[in-house]
Design goal:
By secondary structure, this protein is of the alpha/beta class. 32% of the residues are buried. The structure holds flavin mononucleotide.
């Protein structure tokens, strides 16, 4: 089986952590994968079994390298996406407006896509970002104490996402085992 490529776009590490968790799960399911930063993606001409993109949000947008990646590459292999934001802390995993926008902008049709909550880590931020995040949190009912640090990531959802990916990949290998209809985007 060809390896699956897991690409992450992260600034403070949470999207990378989520990508690593997905990789761990795939390894447990005997699905071989490679992990890479979207800032320096590997050879896209290689035969990948599937591509998983895990990307976080800053100021309402996925990072520039995410946009560039989808602009520069026409993906011919199955795609799965996780979008990481604090807005997603109020959701159930279904794609939020950030993720829907990304899918529409680049005409993407992943076999599965999820919005998952990230981490709020005021002590890490510079003064401007801290100020802005405190304002956003105040407006959206989150904690605004500039010393606080909260991980909102629903790891159960991450594991379920990884299971969907591994089942999809195994199904591709053995098309007679399970119907494709169980994989929703
Ligand atoms: C400067 C800054 C801007 C952010 N802007 C948004 C935003 O517009 N919407 C949102 O839902 N989350 C926003 N977040 C929250 C991040 O998406 C969240 O902290 C995520 O875990 C960051 O992922 P990373 O650690 O991989 O960079 C912002 C965080 C920072 C530090």
């Amino acid at each position: 089986m060809n390896p699956t490529l897991i690409l992450y776009a992260s600034r403070d590490g949470q999207a990378k952590l989520i990508a690593q968790r997905v990789q761990q799960h795939l390894t447990q399911q005997a699905v071989h994968s490679e992990l890479a930063d979207l800032k320096s993606p590997p050879n896209m001409a290689k035969n990948w079994q599937a591509i998983i993109v895990v990307a976080s949000i800053r100021y309402g947008r996925h990072h520039a390298e995410v946009q560039q990646f989808f602009e520069r590459n026409t993906l011919l292999v199955p795609l799965a996406i996780i979008s990481v934001s604090l807005n997603a802390r109020k959701g159930d995993g279904t794609p939020n407006s950030y993720l829907k926008k990304l899918l529409a902008q680049h005409h993407l049709q992943p076999f599965t896509a999820m919005s998952v909550a990230g981490r709020l880590d005021y002590p890490r931020y510079g003064w401007f970002d801290r100020l802005m995040m405190r304002l956003i949190m105040k407006m959206t009912g989150g904690p605004s104490d500039g010393k606080c640090c909260v991980e909102y990531t629903n790891w159960q959802h991450v594991t379920e996402f990884a299971s969907t990916v591994s089942r999809y990949i195994q199904q591709e290998q053995n098309p007679n085992t399970k119907p494709l209809s169980q994989f929703g985007a």
